[in-house]
Amino acid sequence: MKHRTYSIFALLLALLTASSCSNTSEGSSNETTDTENITNESTVISTKDRIAELGERDFGGETFVILDDMGNINVNHPDETLEGDMVNDKVAERNKIISEKYNINFEYLSGSSASERAQLLRKSVMSDEKAYDLFFSVIPTSIGPLATEGILADLAAINELSLDEQWWSKLIYENCRIDGKMYYTTGDISPISYRAPACYYANETLLEEYKISKDDIYSAVENGTWTLDMLNQLAGELDRDLNNDGTLYADDDFFGILNEDNGLTAASFMVASGVNLSSINDNGELYIDLNSEKAINVVEKLSKVLSKAPRKDNNALHDAFKNDRVVFLMHYASSGYTRYRDMNSNYIMLPLPKYDESQENYRSLVNTWMNAFVCIPANADTERAGFIMEVMAYMSRDMLRPVAYDMAMKVKGVRNEKDSVMLDTIIDSIYLDFNSFMEFGGCMNQIAKAIFKDGAYISAITSITDTMNAEIDKFSKAWIGAEN
Questions:
Q1: pTM score, two decimals?
Q2: Helix runs in 17-85, H state only
Q3: Which pLDDT tens digit goes with each residue over 289-311?
Q4: Contact 59, 103 (CB under 8 A)
């Protein structure tokens, strides 16, 4: 296990007076009285409102221990090997500010696999060692099991946290509480949250070649008219059999629309189309309604619009996009930073389209296999942990969000205003519900078969309804009983 400690740094930042800084946010007045502003070079972070509400604290130089992933770019903490990376440096700057302001030291501990880190936390809580204050990890093999074992604190019961505010995911807050209890979330506190949502990539070289207006797409997104029908109209007829073998194969041919054909992809498009894979009723109870008329209609449309092209493996999809053989490719925001950084053609990122124009909002399912999720151990000082967690999230919205573009796009330091709006739209619409990763009764596999393999949908979902309900009941009881 690697230990990294951040001592209290002298804050090399100045407090600006009202006359030295203006507030330009929408709906704000020109009055800046009682606003505390912290600056570092060109960065200005307004800490009015939530910081003032939380009040002053002095933690007496205590150490705040955060357990996190270690490795490559998927980290939520500053890493000396990544110095010069804009996001990494902003995380370090954020921590310095908090360290100085509240007289607290950050220490990060990194293990190896997510399941091993979860076991470290489990042992700490069960033995009441109080070794950790926060934990960042994935859901399926780590935070998810801990939440139903009594290992995690109920975040909804911590007064210092405002989980329905914009620096947290409101959609996760709405969908990941049972009986009012909530054990993990994500938001601006985690740089990885910017890489986790599903999105579309559009190849700019091919958009120009096929006379598809990028500006028209941007306008459609902003106007709420970016829909599956529009996607299909733009690129649904562009597939070409390049080698004339009679089969459209992702490894060799050309596609207007391309995507993976697994359960996570099916879930991403269902969610984007306005279907809740699971919901919470007015009594705070978890339930599933996948036999609704809306769900049936969405599956039918997705089956007509999305690609069903075979491939050797999923790497073939990314190779096709990089080699200008795909106009629109669905994947996750992380690919812009990992797979496409050396791509010759430029690309744009877009939210997944709505089902139709009557749908109120875009929704971007987050990939739960990314360590974008944060929780508090049940035996931690929850008041202190919640306070620091809230401050980290609130400050991150101003400090990390502006450079999120540089994480997701391959051209560092260059920002297209419209691209930034698209990325904000994706990040602000991040969504999660329990069924999207629990897949009660194996329902995601059935949905994927219906969309990508022309399987029967209604009969398949009906056949597993009893199994789904039994698994939901077991999960809900464990979740509710997990409170310590």
A1: 0.85
A2: 50-54
A3: 999 999 999 999 999 999 999 98
A4: yes
